[in-house]
Design brief:
heterodimer, A: two-stranded antiparallel ribbon, 11 helices, 73% helix, B: 387 residues, alpha/beta, Rossmann fold, five-stranded parallel sheet, 14 strands
Chain lengths: 305, 387
């Protein structure tokens, strides 16, 4: 295969991988801290993208023209809005149900995801139509042989990786991260040690949802489009990626995300009909989960017998 | 003693009340079914508004024998929802006829429902030939043309412009598969080559895999058999990958939503559609004027005029034979040389309107223009990948 084409496939795979990884990290954070699967996460990604879209539209209407400012303000708006949404969900839905069977919370969040999707479809003006997302990134592209590297793809890739790295830094090097890890390991002892359980959980949810907003804006900028159904498949893929990588482990989520994207890319190249790439990717994920049910990088946990 | 007059008085009252009602016109219901939400909502809403316009104008006509009421149903461009709403319309005995469907996949799914309920319908936007030709249901009619003529004209036109190498991307519904079948056959008959064919799902987001493969094949034209939402995505992602080729679509992308979604990238897209733009149709100007007076928030889009013509055809039939499904169906089946705003309507033995006219469109400066009127035809602009 022509190296330019191979390079193109690799770049496509990396872009998808970073988006999936951002969604997967959210899932893994929520599971790690509360043992809860928050199925509405994919739709929170979509809400983030729509908030950014609405922010850009209103800023443009009030005369702001610089793409850099538009982008920064839109991202800020999306991140703040989804963080608030995440904290609200934690406070009103997840925390009160933490004594209930995990299945109930899963179902509840699944329904919440549906509600979010339909709310955007019904209440956002013309919500059921796909909406073009403004092209705010520089459109320069550098040609290396047959391979066209676009500056915006590189920027998005870089920002995504940076965001994931930041989350990792917060979890592992800050006091807040320590509190989160403590709550994840043993909520009761953490409380005894003086960690405010509710506040830590809400902050974790806010963080995961903020990352979701970033994933949504990245998706919007990459495809130049957002639509109300984009969260559904992203949520499923993000969740599968988190599970395959190992729920509760951030590195696992990142690994899972890039692994899934890699599988999709291999599937696209290998099969003469690229439509089979999803079948191939999910099929391999199923086999991997059968081989390693707790994920590739399983969370090491000690259960007191 | 019981007053013997009481039942009499009651009966008299009833007579008076009903005689008042008989003085008013009887209300007849018509159904409109189209995609009012989802990716192709713009076309569905345009069709709905056009049908609504026809009903309003007929109700304002004092010579009309009946008052018409439009029942609007959303099929969401999904076959399963289409069957649900079609069943709803069919089961409501007050609905005499329907103006149905823009999406071919939905139209295919619902023909059996209309036949079962004996509800005569006229299709206003779906172009898959099988909707009228694959069955012998007398209830199903169609005023717009089919994709057979569309693709014949398309193939001849593009080979006439000296294009030789195509890659086909089509959606995997009946609509896209139909286009692929007819276009590929026509192109091969005219000596062109199809370098590759990719089937994609109607709601697919990411086309990088298909387009990267396509880039390797180096086609001159990318033929797209599908609807506006993925048409927008494919064209946009083609640009991201630096693919330079002409983009040729079908009636599914001739919509304002396509240009809105792409902005300047839409320039130079070629597409084909049966009928002609409103300004060139016999009743087009009047239709547009009346449409604008009603202040609808959506434009009639490409097929609004067909929905309008279908509604009028139905109402003419009801005026003639009365609000009876079977009689209206028989009356519609006999339609020959009926004058409408889309030209003459004649149904063949499969209740398909024989529309010989196919218009070639090209996007120029953010608008769909008839090819012959455009600068491309005069040679002042060239299609991407042209030589």
């Amino acid at each position: 295969m022509d190296p330019g084409v191979a390079g193109q496939y690799i770049l496509n795979g990396l872009m998808l991988g970073v988006i999936y990884a951002m969604v997967a990290v959210g899932f893994t954070l929520f599971f790690g801290v509360l043992d809860v699967i928050k199925f509405s996460h994919g739709d929170v990604v979509m809400v983030g993208a729509f908030v950014a879209l609405a922010a850009i539209a209103s800023l443009q209407a009030s005369g702001v023209a610089s793409p850099v400012i538009l982008l920064l303000l839109a991202v800020a708006a999306a991140v703040i809005a989804t963080a608030a949404l995440g904290a609200l969900i934690a406070r009103s839905l997840i925390l009160p149900l933490r004594k209930a069977p995990a299945l109930n919370t899963l179902l509840l969040t699944l329904m919440l995801g549906l509600a979010l999707r339909e709310a955007v479809r019904l209440f956002y003006p013309n919500g059921s139509n796909p909406k073009p997302f403004p092209r705010l990134l520089p459109a320069d592209s550098y040609a290396i042989g047959t391979f066209a590297v676009r500056l915006d793809s590189l920027l998005l890739l870089g920002t995504g990786l940076l965001a994931i790295f930041l989350v990792h830094f917060v979890i592992n090097r800050t006091k807040l991260g320590l509190a989160i890890r403590a709550v994840a390991q043993d909520p009761e002892t953490a409380r005894v040690m003086g960690v405010n359980f509710e506040r830590t959980v809400m902050i974790t949810f806010a963080m995961g949802s903020a990352l979701a907003a970033l994933a949504g804006v990245t998706n919007g900028l990459y495809y130049n489009e957002v639509n109300f159904g984009m969260g559904l498949l992203l949520g499923v893929i993000g969740f599968s990626a988190a599970v395959v990588g190992g729920l509760g482990n951030i590195f696992g989520a990142i690994l899972g995300g890039f692994l899934f994207a890699g599988l999709q890319t291999i599937g696209a190249v290998w099969f003469s009909v690229p439509a089979y790439k999803d079948v191939f990717a999910f099929g391999v994920v199923i086999m991997m989960m059968a081989w390693k049910p707790t994920g590739l990088l399983a969370e090491k946990s000690a259960e007191r017998v | 003693m019981r007053c013997p007059l009481r039942p009499f008085a009651f009966f008299l009252l009833l007579l008076i009340l009903t005689s008042n009602a008989a003085g008013a016109k009887e209300t007849v219901k018509l159904a409109f079914i189209g995609p009012l939400s989802g990716g192709v909502a713009a076309n569905g809403l345009g069709g709905r508004n056009s049908t609504d316009l026809a009903v309003r104008m007929r109700n304002a006509d004092t010579k009309a024998k009946y008052t018409y009421e439009l029942v609007v149903l959303d099929d969401e461009c999904k076959p399963n929802i289409g069957v649900q709403v079609a069943t709803k319309a069919g089961a409501d005995r007050k609905i005499i006829a329907g103006v149905t469907h823009y999406c071919s996949a939905v139209a295919m799914g619902t023909v059996d429902v209309y036949h079962r309920f004996g509800l005569p319908v006229i299709v206003w936007g779906a172009v898959l030939p099988d909707v009228t030709y694959a069955n012998d249901y007398k209830e199903v009619h169609r005023v717009n043309g089919t994709m057979i003529n569309q693709n014949e004209v398309a193939a001849r036109f593009m080979t006439g412009l000296n294009f030789k190498r195509w890659v086909v991307i089509h959606d995997t519904t009946d609509y896209g598969k139909g286009h692929n079948k007819y276009f590929s056959a026509d192109i091969q008959k005219l000596g062109g080559t199809i370098l590759g064919t990719f089937g994609v799902t109607a709601d697919q987001q990411d086309f990088n895999a298909e387009l990267t493969k396509l880039k390797e094949l180096k086609p001159e034209v990318v033929y797209f058999g599908g609807l506006t939402p993925i048409g927008v995505r494919i064209r946009s992602q083609m640009d991201k990958l630096g693919i330079i080729a002409a983009f040729q679509g079908t009636s599914g992308i001739v919509s304002d939503a396509f240009i809105e979604g792409l902005g300047p990238l839409a320039e130079g897209t070629v597409a084909f559609r049966e009928g002609a733009p409103l300004e060139k149709l016999p009743g087009g100007k009047v239709f547009l004027e009346q449409y604008q007076k009603q202040n609808y928030s959506e434009s009639p889009e490409a097929y609004g005029a067909f929905a309008y013509a279908a509604a009028n055809l139905i109402m003419d039939a009801i005026e003639k034979v009365g609000p009876d499904r079977h009689k209206v169906m028989t009356e519609l089946n006999a339609t020959r040389d009926h004058q409408s705003i889309v030209g003459t309507i004649t149904f063949d033995d499969h209740r398909q309107n024989m529309v010989p006219l196919i218009t070639k469109f090209v996007v120029q400066d953010g608008k769909w223009m008839v090819w012959e009127d455009s600068e491309y035809a005069r040679g002042k602009r060239k299609l991407p990948g042209a030589h």
